[in-house]
Amino acid sequence: MPDVTKAQTTDSATVDAVAPPAVDAPGKVSAQKSDKPRSLWGDAWYDLRHRPMFWISSVLLVLLLVIAAFPGMFTSVDPRDGDLVHHYLSKPELGHVFQPDWFGYDQQGRSIYARVIYGTRASILVGVCVTAAVTLIGGLLGMLAGYFGGWIDSVISRIVDIFFGLPFLLGTMVVLNAFTERKVYVVILALAFLGWTSIARVMRSSVITAKQADYVTAARALGAGTPRILFRHVMPNAVAPTIVVATIALGGYISAEATLSFLGLGLSDPTISWGIDISEGSKVIRDNPHTLLFPAGMLSLTVFAFIMLGDAVRDALDPKLR
Amino acid sequence: MTTIDKTRNVPEPRGAAEGDVPLLEVRDLHVEFHTRDGVAKAVNGVNYTVNSGETLAVLGESGSGKSVTAQAIMGILDMPPGRIPQGQILYRGEDMLTMSGDARRKIRGQKIAMIFQDALSSLNPVLSVGYQLGEMFRVHQGLSKKDAKAKAIELMDRVKIPAAKERVGDYPHQFSGGMRQRIMIAMALALEPDLIIADEPTTALDVTVQAQVMDLLAELQREYNMGLILITHDLGVVADVADKIAVMYAGRIVETAPVHELYKRPAHPYTKGLLESIPRLDQKGQDLYAIKGLPPNLLRIPTGCAFNPRCPQAQDICRTDVPPLHPVTERDGAELAGRGSACHFWKETIHG
């Protein structure tokens, strides 16, 4: 940190803020391109770039996203194509990288490698969509409750309390039981239906903190209307904790989907999902552990990547941890 | 309240507004806060007027109601717990308290703007100062992003921020305290309002910067011919800038006077005490005078004159009767322009 900064600012949040070119000649400024001013998000991004954890998780996630989007690029085998005669439960050939028999075959003679690849889409889709829905619903309701207070807060907070009281997995099971055909969007809806409460709580409390800030009063005194104050001044200052919770929760939703599918309540057979394969594999785990190991491993890896990313984002956004 | 008529009789010192309508007139304003322990009466019948080009300094200790009055004028009081049981705030003759919320919002920022004490916390940390300055133009005047940015740079030049062009994209934490306050001033000035309320604009700054910021404020005020309400507890800040002073105590104006008159001959024991408690070079080595006692608890304001428990001149009448704002005259009865004192014994105080 340059000494100039120390002299100019006393705020600890500005620790790695670079001293601005105070009275420099204009020509000198372009020479200091790297000293460009940074916002809170700019600071967070700077911090993230210097964390190996962030890079490891991002590379993993990008890879997983590509697999989810284009599974055909990674295997030429149809994951639903079972060949009972030749491949029934044959063991993995770890030398045959990217080949259909890399991870072996399951009870129905289907390539486990192809199924792991094609199962990625369902898991990622569930994770990302549930998180998006939950952030939208919970974030909006939490923001309204926190900003307006009074009876609006009372009503929303009580609804949150009611939903919070329902056990998450049990509740989704009950919801899912009402559907005969359980496609991906049904699982997404069921998880989002019960999952938004924690986000609403986090958002509400951070909005309450942000709305008391002097700059909100100042904006009001300078004639800003309610929507402008809410979305321009309150939200950007209150959204960080929500982002952190949402990123970490994303991994949780993926494992929740797998749990539901394992229990036979989540996605069902024509859809390919790690949870279904884990469920199938668990039946023959004694003699053929590979049928369970590979889908479970992928699941753990994905959840791990998301949670690691969430941790990195949290560390970057929370100045107190710096 | 009998004080209304008394203040209304007091002639304006200078810069009297077009026609008869002053730029801003506060009439018998009361503000109270409903707390768990009871009703805190923060403002109890304040009257003052400000005209274009005029600076009114509102002086008082913490808790005297000076900031609350300003917040009531701006309409940024938290209500509840705040409440305005009576009074009027007239902007060019129109009562802002009975206006629709929308009409009021249009006045804020465009006609009346405010400068806050702590510039760092009054600027949004996640937006660049250029964006925040430009926001004024984009929202109120519908300018494009580019034009708004150009205007923001112009404003930053105006308030003498060096290298405005290079620094327009910087964030509030990258500026020093004095520069931040200049940005606050620029923001308040953006739409060239008629009236600026500065709530302790220099309190958070160090002494050398204070003078610069005050000079800048005074200069801009002259240039734009704005009215200025300067809220402060610093007698030194006021002397050079203000035209007239209103001294507040326990939510009431206890003395009004043109600025130099007040320093020369205070007509209220409280003002006198304040002036005597300023350290002076010629009294080096002596004990510093201090007004005895504490400011009153707003939940239990003493009966009669609120200052009576601390007043060296207090008599029985002070404990029973609330003194109205008496017009202050010379010994021979000649009127003193703009002077008033809410003391039963103002004659004794000013003429000794």
Architecture overview:
The complex is a heterodimer of chains A (322) and B (352). Helices cover 67% and strands 0% of the residues of chain A. By secondary structure, chain A is mainly alpha-helical. Chain A folds into two domains: 1-26 and 37-50, no CATH class; 52-321, MetI-like fold. In chain A, helix 6 packs antiparallel against helix 7 (150-165) and helix 7 packs across helix 9. Chain A is elongated and about 80 Å long. Chain A starts with a helix and ends in a 5-residue tail after the last helix. Chain B is of the alpha/beta class. Chain B folds into three domains: 3-123 and 193-255, P-loop containing nucleotide triphosphate hydrolases (Rossmann fold, 3-Layer(aba) Sandwich), CATH 3.40.50; 124-192, no CATH class; 259-351, no CATH class. In chain B, 34% of the residues lie in helices and 22% in strands. Chain B is built from 14 helices and 13 strands. Chain B has helices at residues 3-9, 66-74, 101-107, 119-122, 129-141, 145-158, 164-167, 177-189, 207-224, 235-241, 259-264, 269-276, 316-320, 346-351; strands at residues 24-35, 38-50, 55-59, 82-83, 88-91, 94-95, 112-115, 195-199, 227-232, 244-249, 252-258, 326-329, 335-341. In chain B, helix 9 (207-224) links the parallel strand 8 and strand 9. The longest helix of chain B is centred in the middle third of the chain and has 18 residues, at 207-224. Mean pLDDT of chain B is 82; it is low at 1-18. The chains are: A mainly alpha (322), B alpha/beta (352). At the A-B interface, helix 10 and helix 11 of A face helix 3, helix 4, helix 5, helix 7 and helix 8 of B.
